[in-house]
Fold each of these.
Amino acid sequence: MPLVAAGHKRTGACPTFDRPVLQRDGTLLRVPLVGGRLSSQAAVAIAGISAEHGNGIIELTNRGNLQVRGLRTAAMGPITDHLRHLGLGHPDAALVTISPFANSDEHHVRARVVGALHDLLADGIELSPKFVVHVDDAAGTTSSRRAEAVLALTGAGVRVDIDQLGTTTTSAADAVDLVVALAEACRRVAPDARVADILQACGPGWLHAVLPADLAPLAVGSSRRGRTPGVGRYLGPCGERLLLAGARFGRTDAGALSALSVHHDELRITPWRSIAFTEPANPASRLLLEESLEAIGLIVDPADAAADVISCIGAAGCWQTEADTWVEAERVVASRANDPQAQRGPIHISGCDKRCATRGPMAVTYVGRTDGSGFDQVVG
């Protein structure tokens, strides 16, 4: 039985800050964050906007951003103006992303790439809204980030990985030149072209010829990827002790975000739909932190049955599906909690075959049927 019938509708448009998308539950606004960093002032503002103009649901995305759901269309102008005033919504945040665990040197590399791409765009070059360059951290924690190029500092310089094409390690200046040449190559093929489009249309030989570096093949199993953090305690790339608190099914609410801003000057949203907190040295303070996070609905115990269950909004908010993903997600969690033999490992509940909620490896995915009659289980 096919998972999704032929003719299943696709919008093809992802929400952005400058282009909010009208969904079933109202307008959806994506707020890009640089390295997942969100000041307490900005958190208060987003929580207030969600409570006053939306349905109170705030989603953590798989790129370390926030999505505010159910907003009134008439209020979008004042909302985006207010957030811009707080320094949010700049296109740079989505164009050149960076790990939430990056250090100052890695942020410097990001700034150089941003500046070079600015110069390119100022010359009239247009790039696909989905063209992204990513800067990883020292441990390779976010090296699996989907991007046209992933940059990482190494002892030998800057490593540049271009998916499906190759890798090279070079100086910071040459790495920036390589990224610019990659962007120019995409634009030469088509206004919305990405590397995958070039490889399909022109083949890898053409792209190798126009790039100012010799790329070695990306060997199977050569990824720098570190352990993908789950919820609970985690030792960061620089040795810092962190507590990662997960959002249940990838979403929280205005009240929780507002409560977090009272005690934390800055929040770090991770690509794993969690929030990273620096652990206090005092054991009593650590326990107090855990209890306060659990009290507002965040998950800190990796053994929690919902800790690695990911779900899209489903029929509650999306035009793409009639499947109730929330009910299915709760069913999966209950099954896990009551049955020690139940499926372990990351589980993805998707309302349709687009699987928007995650691009990472899953143990099992449940895909909603087009008629809303239930879900089909697939591996991966």
Amino acid sequence: MGILLDLRQAIVQRVAGKSEEELAGVIEGSIGGDDRTLPGLGVLFEIIWQNIDEETQKRLVRVLHEHLAPA
């Protein structure tokens, strides 16, 4: 578990202090990129999830569900 915590802390430190525009750039630059960016997106999503209201969480889950539905 120490490695996971270290990774999480490293990711948070990497983006701490960035402007909103810079954060958007980090996210956009990571989406669809190399699989190595996925842990970073996961950490950012975790922060978002922990800091949004229940209605917004439900909305995000609905969006995911709609886009992950079998064809």
